[in-house]
Design goal:
By secondary structure, the chain is of the alpha+beta class. Helices cover 23% and strands 29% of the residues. α2 runs parallel beside α6. It is globular.
Amino acid sequence: MTLKVNLLKICSILLITFYQYGNAQDNQFAKVDSLFNHLNSQTPGAVVTIVKNDRVIYTKGYGMANLSYNIPMTENALIDIGSCAKTFTAFGISLLVEDGIISLDDDIRTYIPEFPDYSHKITIRHLGTHTSGIREWIQLIHLSGYEYIGDPKTKQHLLNLILNQEGLNFVPGEKFNYSNSNYLLLAEIIERVSGKSFAQFTDEYIFQPLDMRDTYFYDDFFKIRKNAASRYYFENNEIKEVPQHHAAPGDGSLYTTAQDFGKWLVNFADNKIGNSNVFSTMEKQMKLNDSTIISATFGQYFDPYKGKIQFQHSGDAGGINSHYARFPNEKLSVFVSCNDYNCTAQFLALKIVDIFLDQESEPFSIKNPGNRTTYSKDPSSLLTLDGYYWSEDVNLSRRIEFRSDSLFYLRANGIESLLIPITESKFTFDEGTIDTKIWFEVNSSGKRTFLYQYQNDQPNTFVEYEPITYDPSELKQFAGLYFSPELRSIYEIKVDSGVLIASHFRKGNTKLSPVMVDLFSGSSFSFGQVKFLRNKENLVDSFIVSSKNAKGIRFEKIQE
């Protein structure tokens, strides 16, 4: 009788415990759902996957997968996850390393012999950690006259462009500089080593073993994408659809579902495929040539969050925005993917992390996720920060403008952002961006500077300068037709209404604003800096274009 009573008591305790746990988890799921209340039958959508204790505990879709045909977003909808695909590419390389077929320290010219010889060894490890110095293909296609979103791009098109470049952004291993070209080349190495297409290799060695039945790399514009979510963005308060424009897998072009991605996240815990060396490689931070340790690992980023170890990656492109966050010590992973470029997937994912780690979280706002901080000093003191700033790091000019007792961050293309104070000298942006900060200092020369940092990337330094002015007659010395053999592209430099313009017959006009003597800042991101060069007669005969991710591209004058 006593034994029977004790068993009843134990069962009662277990039932109460499970009931309490179930209620607690239901409450957490309700909080997750509340983050997506702004999505409905009139908006693009999002999907969520949550992995806890090595199993998927929640997947759900919100909003719409397709607005034209009124198709709701579900956990089974195919969605392009952008650069989150890079983690799979890195994993594929790591499997080849595990089998002893390649080494991360191999020269990439061993596998792609037609790759240019820049007199510096570029390794597979350099590619996977974005430390190769190889120019970013996105800037290159813009400069060559193509639109990133509007024009379809194939692997061969982009490879031809990359292989035709005559220079690097920097010595390999010297810096971190995010470049999609790196992962396009990694996919090419996988193809050449395995003898299979990249899509076939990843399907056979990753997706099938993990039972990711609906996941594939998209390498054919004519492939039917059943149940695929459309892509959207907002412009002037109007929702617009983005066409599929990229079929060159490796850096992106991965279609998956919330359910399938959960299986991928679980694999980091149970190692169904890949041994400990594979995962160790993908979690080891890169060390630069000067021994500086950066946040980039092979295919991910080491990014501690609120004192906890986190590995993460984001993906955003035309009409999509995705993010996953892994907390191995807490056995928690979260994935959020949206078919809306304006979605703040990273912010939403970290809000979910806060819910499951029982962390304090800032109030949620679609416009400004995070608390505004009141500037404690006299706002007029911000006037001392007003001015023009130039960065040699990223070849960009920025204007900091004091207006209406606030600071505004002005870009060359006319887009501006309100700066929200964090401290007396540190600010962030009022536009849904997280982990982007700028802070003001005075350098050793006594000049005002600000440092711009995104997440854990190395900060870029901007130094104050006084813009030079040219009258229209002086600007004519720069006019002419210029040709780049690297891009097979021609620009006309001309004076229009007193302003210097770079004109391309496919791209239209880019305004060039004077910064210093013979140095101009462009109004498009691919025209960050334009430096005009002179011959022995002191006449302008060429210019060099540099942007953050593609530096030193030369255009020769071919006609006055």
